[in-house]
Write a structure and sequence with these properties.
The protein has 296 residues and is an alpha/beta fold. It folds into two domains: 229 residues, TIM Barrel (Alpha-Beta Barrel); 31 residues, no CATH class. Helix content is 49%, strand content 12%. It has 14 helices and eight strands. Strands 6-5-4-3-2-1-8-7 form an eight-stranded parallel sheet. Strand 4, helix 6 and strand 5 form a beta-alpha-beta unit.
Length: 296
């Protein structure tokens, strides 16, 4: 079931900051921190699950299981990347129903051609706006609950310009999208225009480490008319940097002593994060008397 708290937060004009999660360790850490929503990044999920680029190779089957595991393993509402809906109109209906049944709260659909490419990368091409509007209409009809939110993303800015991206955002809102996502605006002024000209909750994609869009404070984004800020790459880029430092240290030194401060997560904290205390409590409660004597 979709979580009604995200819709309620948007209705209350609460600005939503959503960190990117990409595996169950990142999901569990983010889930404990008090965010209003989490964002299941397609790039990071495909990279961690399949070890390949987010270039339209991953299928609905690859992704819905992962997204469902994130949703079931977290108590925070989950926003999930669903690429193009994995095909045509019938695929979109199947995707929406599958993601909703898996426990996702909001699904992001984009207007790229198949196979899609990751946002903020070159070579993205979009389908006709009217074709995407039909996909949004199908998605809205397919959902079982109004608490399951439809996010319409357009990648038209990079290839067709800002005017066309805004036109598409307006069209997708009229088609029933709950949230509009104009991918890759290239300045604060462009973001201001988007906020002025699209009457809908807006999503800002903050890509750390080299995205096209400036990363602005939540106060600035709210003043420009945005409602949600996602940080899809923050988690996996942080993880990759820490792993590279740790593994290089091991290769260079031959052991893991004297690692740089702050690189390691404490083993005891990891046990707690993964739920081992509950397992140990279960074992104690159900241990056989002979096993208890052996342990003693």
């Amino acid at each position: 079931m979709a979580d009604p708290r995200l819709r309620a937060a948007l209705a209350a004009k609460q600005f939503v900051v959503a960190p990117g999660i990409f595996d169950m360790i990142s999901a569990r850490i983010a889930d404990r921190m008090g965010f209003t929503a989490l964002y299941a990044t397609g790039y990071g999920t495909v990279a961690s699950h399949l070890g390949i680029p987010d270039a339209g190779v991953a299928t609905f089957t690859d992704m819905v299981g992962r997204m469902g595991r994130f949703a079931q393993g977290c108590s925070t509402p989950l926003i999930a990347d669903a690429d193009t809906g994995y095909g045509g109109l019938l695929n979109v209906r199947h995707t929406v129903r599958g993601y909703e049944a898996a426990g996702v709260t909001a699904v992001q659909l984009e207007d790229q051609e198949v196979p899609k490419k990751c946002g903020h990368t070159p070579g993205r091409r979009v389908i006709p706006a009217e074709e995407m509007a039909l996909k949004i209409e199908v998605a809205v009809e397919a959902r079982r609950s109004d608490d399951f939110l439809i996010i319409a993303r357009t990648d038209a800015r990079t290839s067709l310009g800002l005017d066309e991206a805004i036109r598409r955002g307006q069209l997708y809102r009229k088609a029933g999208a709950d949230i509009v996502f104009i991918e890759s605006p290239e300045s604060e002024d462009e973001m201001r225009r988007i906020g002025d000209e699209i009457d809908a909750p807006l999503l800002a994609n903050n890509v750390d480490g080299g995205g096209r869009t400036p990363i602005l404070s939540r106060e600035t984004l709210a003043s420009l008319g945005y409602s949600i800020a996602i940080y899809p790459a923050l988690g996996f880029l942080t993880m990759a940097a820490a792993l590279e430092r740790s593994y290089a240290h091991l290769l260079r030194q031959g052991d893991s002593n004297n690692l740089p401060e702050g690189v390691l997560y404490e083993f005891g904290k990891m046990n707690e994060l993964m739920g081992f205390p509950e397992v140990w409590d279960f074992d104690r409660r159900w241990a056989r008397p002979d096993a208890q004597r052996a342990d003693g």
